[in-house]
Write a structure and sequence with these properties.
43% helix; five-stranded parallel β-sheet; alpha/beta
Length: 268
């Protein structure tokens, strides 16, 4: 269905809403960081209503923000079936990366709560490239794509480049940008490996943050786990380590985390 037809169809649904309620929270990133699994878990919670699609992509649509009246009614149409839930939210992992997004979200709802889940940025970069390769939007081998990104980023300035395998892993900068617009107590920063190893504990941390009842039990979920043609080679891993180690160290200081395992060679 063409985009303008989707918008028209959703605008026809607005009479059903009958509410000025705003969305309570967003899972804002990071891309390839575990957002799909987290979204799937939260859809099981009886007090949480998620948007009827994952990745609404409202706040990253520049055409919606060219004047002073963004089409919030269109945004709300994605939640028409869950308005009775205690908390409603959505997952769009690109929100963390794009510079304009935090201000747009604050202008919509200054009380919005923002959840971020972070994955080892070295592994995240390879997963991102693998996704784009499968989609046919990246034709270069991984090592060449990393080198090309540096050129693409320069050419895109002052804008940001979409296929940012390295730069999307500059987490500290992105978190600090969110904190420029939202108080820290409205943000929750999680680790991908914690969600995989201890999903119930992490999910109940999310529940406390959203002020809903805890989960009693959950079934482990592996969402969007794509097959790789081959493991990342040593040269590409070392290049990424050199590029991202200062960022990882900065993140450790920012969050009080120990991310030393992100810099170690993975066990076979």
């Amino acid at each position: 269905m063409r985009p303008h037809r989707i918008i028209l169809r959703r605008l026809k649904q607005l009479k059903v809403l009958g509410s000025k309620r705003k969305v309570d929270f967003v899972i804002a990133g990071a891309q390839k960081g575990g957002t799909t699994a987290l979204d799937a878990y939260l859809r099981q919670h009886p007090e949480i209503g998620m948007a009827d699609v994952k990745e609404v992509h409202f706040f990253d649509k520049n055409e919606f923000f060219r004047n002073s009246k963004p089409p919030y009614s269109f945004y709300h149409s994605f939640f028409s079936g869950v308005l009775s839930r205690k908390r409603i939210g959505e997952t769009t992992p690109s929100y963390m990366y794009w510079r304009a997004i935090p201000q747009r979200i604050r202008d919509y709802n200054p009380a919005m709560k923002i959840v971020v889940i972070l994955r080892n940025p070295i592994e995240r970069a390879y997963s991102h490239w693998n996704m784009e390769r499968e989609r046919g939007t990246e034709r270069l081998p991984f090592g060449e794509a990393l080198q090309a990104e540096l050129v693409r980023a320069r050419e895109a300035q002052p804008n940001q480049h979409k296929n940012a395998y390295i730069y999307r892993g500059f987490y500290a900068e992105q978190i600090e940008r969110i904190w420029n617009y939202f108080p820290k107590n409205q943000t929750l920063i999680l680790k991908n490996e914690d969600l995989r190893k201890n999903p119930l504990s992490v999910l109940n941390e999310v529940c406390r943050f959203l002020e809903v009842s805890p989960f009693e039990k959950v079934e482990n979920k592996e969402a969007h786990s794509r097959q790789y043609l081959a493991p990342m080679n040593v040269q590409d891993r070392e290049f990424l380590k050199q590029m991202l180690e200062p960022e990882i160290k900065k993140l450790e200081k920012l969050l009080g985390w120990d991310c030393s395992n992100w810099l170690r060679e993975p066990k076979n």
